[in-house]
UniProtKB/TrEMBL annotation:
Organism expressing this protein natively: Halarchaeum salinum
Keyword Transmembrane among UniProt keywords: no
Subcellular location: Cytoplasm
Cofactor annotation: pyridoxal 5'-phosphate
Entries under CDD domains matching the protein: SHMT (cd00378)
Metabolic or biological pathway, per its Swiss-Prot or TrEMBL entry: One-carbon metabolism; tetrahydrofolate interconversion; Amino-acid biosynthesis; glycine biosynthesis; glycine from L-serine: step 1/1
Described purpose of this protein according to its UniProt entry: Catalyzes the reversible interconversion of serine and glycine with tetrahydrofolate (THF) serving as the one-carbon carrier. Also exhibits THF-independent aldolase activity toward beta-hydroxyamino acids, producing glycine and aldehydes, via a retro-aldol mechanism.
Lineage, highest ranks first: Archaea, Methanobacteriati, Methanobacteriota, Stenosarchaea group, Halobacteria
Marked site (Plays an important role in substrate specificity) residue numbers: 227
Alphabetized Gene3D superfamilies for the sequence: Aspartate Aminotransferase, domain 1 (3.90.1150.10), Type I PLP-dependent aspartate aminotransferase-like (Major domain) (3.40.640.10)
The name this protein goes by in its record: Serine hydroxymethyltransferase
Residues given in the record as (6S)-5,6,7,8-tetrahydrofolate binding sites: 119, 123-125, 242, 353-355
Subunit structure: Homodimer.
Length: 415
């Protein structure tokens, strides 16, 4: 995209847009929830569908002029159904958080109880944090990971479910590097007669490609983002059995949303189409292989990973054992100077604040899209470790920056 038309009418915004394209081209995006979509997805997202009001669902809209909106939404639904195999799919949530709120709206009454993973242990704000609407509307109980192993404590979750009698148990996480045992959590949900919502925001693409077991058909509701490990542009998705279809659809609209962002639904349709290509399976496998390579390199440099490694696209470094005086924010800032972009993150048993925590999270989806393989990921792991060892050393920062420039030049992104 050249933004020539925007430049003619609004140079200030054009500067920001071209600046962002250059930033993405010139840096290594390692925020685990980010990716780079194709030009085709971006074109669909900037289409005339942004002008269209399509309240309702295909063949049942509240306004006229929706024949092409119907085509696009039906294609997105068809392709999502093929990718994840759910009986019913709603592709209208504006984001993963909206998808979660729609499920809560469909199944909970104010004052009902949510049982979800604690934020500092890898959960998500939308799972009932006090600052989030869900935290204000519902009673919230949190389970944790085992601080020794960094792995989900399924027995502890089961005990807590029996003592708190939740209406819904949420599985699926923001900073959990390991495979989730959906069946084990479903057994608990069955035992306490609670719904089970699996929020696969981070791993939608891995699940679609068979790189992580699917919760579809096991749990009651599956939600996700459409822009993390699957490259279909910003948005959310909900999947469920036919039994809950009407409740979910009316919870999304008119429950919590008005007109769907049909241009984003078009992006989802295009991105889901791309994910149906066999090449996507190879991509997802590479994402996981790259996660392992990154983790191994970090460990070889003396860093401690929560849970000792990863089965997925992300690693979580606990800085406390190796670098007790360095915070996640120190590392995030020093790495950003070199062009490596990741985020500070809490770790299980966090002893600092959520704003300046003791860990950093790094992911491989975006670099894998750029063409990085295990060899490059191992080098990136070494570069990250060099900066963690010497965040204030300008010679190290310059050396790593120069290498980042070479790596980005060798793996170009957007023309
Ligand atoms: C587990 C989980 N759920 C929901 C979300 C929210 O997604 P969105 O930013 O699309 O609202 C995230 C975002 O990272 C997430 O990690």
């Amino acid at each position: 995209m050249t933004y020539e038309t925007v430049r003619e009418t609004d140079p200030a915004v054009a500067d920001a847009l071209t600046g962002e394209r250059k930033r993405q081209n010139d840096t290594l995006a390692m925020i685990a929830s980010e990716n780079h979509v194709s030009e085709a997805v971006m074109e669909a997202q900037s289409s005339e569908l942004t002008n269209n009001y399509a309240e309702g669902y295909p063949e049942g809209r509240y306004y006229g002029g929706c024949e092409y909106a119907d085509d696009v939404e039906s294609l997105a639904i068809e392709r999502a159904t093929e990718l994840w195999g759910a009986e019913h799919v709603n592709v209208q949530p504006h984001s993963g958080s909206q998808a979660n709120m729609a499920v809560f709206t469909a199944i909970l009454e104010p004052g009902d109880t949510i049982l979800s993973l604690d934020l500092t242990h890898g959960g998500h704000l939308s799972h009932g944090h006090p600052a989030n609407a869900a935290g204000k509307l519902y009673d919230v109980e949190h389970y944790e990971v085992d601080e020794e192993t960094g792995r989900l404590d399924y027995a502890g979750l089961d005990d807590l479910a029996h003592s708190t009698d939740p209406d819904v148990i949420i599985s699926g996480f923001s900073a959990y590097p390991r495979t989730v045992d959906w069946e084990a959590i479903q057994e608990t949900a069955d035992a306490v007669d609670a719904y089970h919502l699996a929020d696969i925001a981070h791993i939608t693409g891995l699940v679609a490609a068979g790189e992580h077991p699917s919760p579809v058909g096991i749990v009651d509701f599956v939600t996700g983002s459409t822009h993390k490990t699957i490259r279909s542009g910003r948005g959310g998705i909900i999947m469920c059995s036919e039994e809950h279809a009407d409740d979910i659809d009316s919870a999304v609209f008119p429950g919590i949303q008005g007109g769907p962002l049909m241009h984003n639904v078009a992006g989802k349709a295009v991105g889901f189409g791309e994910a149906l290509d066999p090449e996507f399976e190879a991509y997802a496998a590479q994402v996981v292989e790259n996660g392992e390579a990154l983790g191994e390199a970090l460990k070889a440099n003396g860093l401690t990973l929560v849970s000792g490694g990863t089965d997925t696209h992300l690693v979580l470094v606990d800085l406390r054992p190796s670098h007790p005086d360095t915070t996640g924010k120190d590392v995030e800032a020093a790495l950003e100077e070199t062009g490596i972009v990741l985020n500070a993150n809490t770790v299980p048993g966090e002893t600092r604040s959520a704003f300046n925590p003791s860990g950093v999270r790094a992911g491989t989806p975006a670099l894998t899209t750029r063409g990085f393989e295990a060899k490059e990921m191992r080098e990136v792991g070494d570069l990250i470790a060099d900066v963690i060892d010497a965040p204030d050393d300008s010679t190290v920062i310059e050396h790593v920056s120069a290498r980042v420039d070479e790596l980005t030049d060798a793996n170009p992104l957007y023309e």
